[in-house]
Every structure is written in structure tokens, then in C-alpha cells.
Amino acid sequence: MVDLAASQPSGHVRSRTVQDHIDELPMWADGTHLPAAPMTGMQWLIWSLAAAGKFFEGFVVFMTGVALPLLSNEFDIGAAEHGVIGAASLAGILVGAVALGGLSDRFGRKPMFVAEMVLFCAFLVGLVFCPNYPLLVVFLFGLGLSLGCDYPTAHMIISESIPSTSRGRLVLGAFAFQAVGALGGTVVGYAVLSTLPEIGAWRWMYASAIIPAILVTIGRFYIVESANWLSSRGEMAKAEQAVRRLLVRKPQYPAEIRLATRHGDGMGHGSPAGQSWTSLFSKANRRATILASVPWFLQDLGTYGIGIFTPTILAVALGANSDHARSVADLILNDIVAAKGAALITTLLIVGIIFAVLLADTVGRIALQILGFIGCAAGLFLASLASSFSGGTSTLLIFAGFMLFNFMTNLGPNAQTYLLAGEVFPTAIRGKGAGFAAAFAKIGAVATAFLFPILLASIGTTALLYGLIVVSILGALVTWLYRIETTGVNLDRLDQPFEAASTGGSVPVAAE
């Protein structure tokens, strides 16, 4: 290959923004550019370590659904305590997204990226050796606290380090590991139960994540700080050094990096006003805050309720109701059957996110989110029809409906809400904005996780599904009314304030 570094013009090097350097296309000696900027080793390291965090989230949260019957038996808990266990980690995510995720705007992306994994490992070990129900709730909450910090931090540390044209694919590619983790959690749960059919098997389920989590924690010490964040604070020398470490290539390109000084844009980069929580609700950012928060909240109502309690619902649908198990052996057998069914359904999360990765940078975030919400409503409606049938037809409708729901939620709202929340805010408040959106969403997740088992027992599956159908349709409507398209947009241009169109139309943020 031609020495790309040698093909750069000599003499004065023009000052550019961080994202301009990242997006710069290498050039052959004849003056033609490569079609895309090649990813460096550091960029791939950042991506893989962020993807690992999403894997742990799916693994722990969804495996809790398999572990619930065992936990219920060991600690002798009822429906309300079931709800608390299901909601504990989600409540932790809510608090962590706001209390810890927003700290990345103050202390940097890397320190919080490391700290969250240290917390995760500590609480995971505590969970494995947990002696009673109250501490079980505390440790699950602590795990959620670390995962909540990861929501905004992982997104930002990827999106602020990679080319704009591939941001959607790579951010969602990392997010896809949440679905891989969800499948891994149910598969590990099934494998552990099959190998060790006893009540204490849930401890081994969680223990399986300890060593991988420690390795990821060590790896995060070796990444570079976000140059975009350093630049937004006016630390240009450190930002230039970070870009050099980020863009190490063989042959080296670009050969020299010089960053342009960032000027104020009305947001007050690095100033107290620009970084306050009230900035999220200013006229310039209110539309972004609504778009990032409300659809995510509505999506989490369905995704976490269906996801966590799929094994419970399937146990009922398949005639294996663990609430009426006659013995420990029956309880474990029922849980194994439900875990197998949940694993099958969860595979559609992975298929859905694969399609989201392929289409996010072409079809666009908004179109996929609206389509996904409508598809979720269709899947839930299909599942609700099961109550009108019996036997194999009823089971088929439950499976088909849940599989369609899982596919459409990961094609659309589950993926796109996460992607949009980390894109629509300026750099100075991106951590707070994404953290607030994640926390607001988890209010819905906590509510549904706590209330789902209670409502399931009191009003039944069909009524719950009807309610979630309405929620999905409302999510599509809010997305349409407050839409902002960010597909392919340079992150530096997101720092420029924008106004909501009076017609409610799509607002492209500094379209290229």
C-alpha cells in the first residue's frame, strides 16, 4: 500500500476540530481518497470494552428472570418481593445514570468508564455470597448503579472516538451485545440448572461473570480519554495528545495533528451555565430532551417487563406454573423448561439488533424507531390473541407474538433510543443529557418490573398486553412529533444550537 502519510501536503497544517481529524479520509499518492477512514487499534479497543459492558447488562438483568424461582424458594418470598428483586437492578440503573453518568461531563469519560466496572465487580462478588433477602436487593441495586453509569458513558466514549459515517453501526454494534448478554444469561441459567439442579444454582449463574468482568476492568485502564471532551473544556494540548494516541496507524495518517480552538456557541462550553442540569430544559435543548427521554421511557415499560418475566409467562403458558410446584425438583424442572423457551425468544433480540446495525446509517434513526414501535404493538397484539385459544395454538401465538416483539424492539426503539440519547445533546452536557434520558427511561423499567408480577396475578396476561400495545403506539407518536434526525451528522456540529420547527417537522441537526 502507498505510504498514506507521505501523500499529505507539506508545509502549514490547517487547524481542525477533533471530529474532523477522526473523519479525515486517507489519500493515495494519486490524490484519490479511501472510501472510509480505517479504524485504529485504539478505536477497536474502546469499542470492544464498551461492548463488554453492554453484554454484562443483558447477562445480569435477563438472567435474573431465570434465577427468580430459585431466589423465591431460598429466601421464601412472595409476589411483592419478586417485584422488588426484578426492580432492584433497574432502580440502580436509574440512579446510576443520573448520579454517576453525568459525572463524565465533569471528571471525564475514561475515569467513569473504569469506575463503573470496579463497582460492578465488587457488587457481583457480594451477590454471589449474599446470605439474605435484604442484602440481595442491595447487591442487585449496586449492580444496576454501575450499569446505569455505563449507559451514557459507553455511548459517548465510542461516539466521540469514531468516524461520523459509521457511528450508528458501531454504537449499535456495541449495544447489540446487550442482546447477546440477554441470550447468554438465559443459556447460562439453563446450563447451570441442568448441571447443578439445586436451589443454590443461582449463585453459580452470577459467579460465571466475575472473571470476565475483572478482565474488562483491567482493559479499560489502557484506553485514551475522549479528545472531544478535553477539547470542549479548552484543554487543547491534552486533546491533541489524545487524538494522536487514538489515531495511531501504520503507515501513520495524519502525520501531524493541530486542533482548532473551540469558541462558545451559546451553550457555554466548560462554564457552569453550559454544564448545569437546567440546560437540558432550555429552549435550545428541550426538544432533544423530550425525544431522548419519553420514547425510551415508553419502550422500557414493555421491553423490561416482557424480558424479565418471559420465563414466568412461558411457565404459565406451557402449563408449568412454578407457583404450584409440588417439590424442589418440580420447581427446577419448570424453570429449565421456561429458560429454554426464553432463550429461543431472546434470539430474536439479536436478529433485531443485527438489522438495526445494518440500517441505522442508511434508513435513519427516526424511521426505524417509529417502525419498531408499531411492530412491537403488532407483536403484543398477536400474543394477546392467545387467550382466545387453547393448546398448541395458544402456545404458538405467545411464542410468535413475543418473538415479533423482541425483533421489532431491537430493530427500533430499544436500539434507536439508546443511539439518539447520546447524539442529540452538545458535548458539554452530553453526559447529563444521555444520563437523564436513561434514568427517565428506567423509571418505566422499575415500575413495570415491580408491578408486572403483581398485575400478572391480579388482572392477567391479556390485560397487561393490551396496556403495552397502547404504550407502543404512543411511543411512535411522540417520536414523530419531536423527531430530530442525526444520521451521519458530525458530532462537532451537534454543539450548534438548533430550534424546533414550528410545524413539528423533522429537525436535521446541522445536516451535511
From TrEMBL:
Pfam families, sorted: Sugar_tr
Alphabetical list of InterPro entries matching this protein: MFS_dom, MFS_sugar_transport-like, MFS_trans_sf, Sugar_transporter_CS
Keyword Metal-binding among UniProt keywords: no
Residue ranges constituting the Major facilitator superfamily (MFS) profile domain according to the UniProt record: 46-487
Membrane disposition: Multi-pass membrane protein
Localization per record: Membrane
Transmembrane segment boundaries: 44-71, 83-100, 112-129, 135-158, 170-192, 204-223, 341-360, 366-389, 396-413, 433-456, 463-482
Family statement: Belongs to the major facilitator superfamily. Sugar transporter (TC 2.A.1.1) family.
Protein name, per record: MFS family permease
